[in-house]
Write a structure and sequence with these properties.
9 strands, 8 helices, alpha/beta, 5-stranded parallel beta sheet, two-stranded antiparallel sheet
Length: about 230
């Protein structure tokens, strides 16, 4: 998978996505992440990418043309049209199921918004989907883009050492993850559940399923409405 990120602050991404699991995935070639400085596609001497909104109001809006030029440049680089996603508080809230669906895409472009938003004409003409990471507003789209890219990359084959690394996690199958334990078997008077020490795989799987349902009912009962 190739991910292209259109941003005013490309330097923010390397410290987050250039290390750990996602960094290793880029080095192995499992994923590619490219950032694009939006100001490089501005066409005045001040490299302005924003202007005041028609009709008045607070703040500035991101101009359509620099974004369009940057996206068209990405299309030329990739030889195809990536799915273009705008990180926006007006978008549908990101969930694991949507990540599973989007992980089938070969190329995704992400627009990081700023100021009071983006000229609606750009959104109407170019954007395929708006995605939010929650019902709150941040100072820009860079942090949401990092969250989205990180969560998406983990679903790409070859990024994690074993698919079970994400299929067993919270939200993948609609439930929260079961409790987990590591050595020692007894810690400060608290013992690991005996079933996990038994070596009986069927019983362990049964226990994990029951605990997942129990934890979900306690912490996120809303998720049980969509779980078989």
């Amino acid at each position: 998978m190739r991910i292209d990120i259109i941003t005013l602050f490309p330097e923010m991404f390397e410290p987050v996505l250039g290390d750990s699991i996602i960094g290793r995935a880029q080095k192995s070639g499992a994923v590619e992440i490219h950032t694009h400085q939006l100001r490089d596609f501005a066409f005045d001497k001040h490299r302005r990418v924003d202007d005041s909104p028609y009709g008045g109001g607070m703040g500035m809006l991101m101009k359509a043309e620099p974004i369009a030029l940057c996206f068209e440049h990405i299309c030329e680089e990739t030889g195809s049209r990536p799915r273009f996603i705008y990180m926006s508080p007006q978008g549908k809230t990101l969930c694991q199921q949507r990540l599973r669906e989007l992980s089938a895409e070969e190329n995704i472009a992400i627009l990081c918004g700023h100021y009071e938003g983006v000229d609606q004409r750009l959104l109407d003409m170019f954007i395929d989907e708006e995605i939010s990471i929650g019902d709150y507003v941040l100072t820009g789209g860079e942090i949401p883009a990092m969250v989205f890219a990180d969560a998406l990359c983990r679903m790409v084959p070859g990024v994690l050492t074993n698919n079970e690394c994400f299929t067993e996690e919270s939200h993948f199958n609609g439930l929260l993850e079961y409790p987990q334990y590591t050595k020692p078997a007894e810690w400060r008077g608290m013992e690991v559940p005996e079933v996990l020490l038994s070596g009986h795989h069927a019983n362990i799987e049964k226990w994990r399923r029951e605990k997942s349902l129990e934890v979900t009912a306690q912490k996120r009962p809303d998720l049980l409405k969509t779980t078989e």
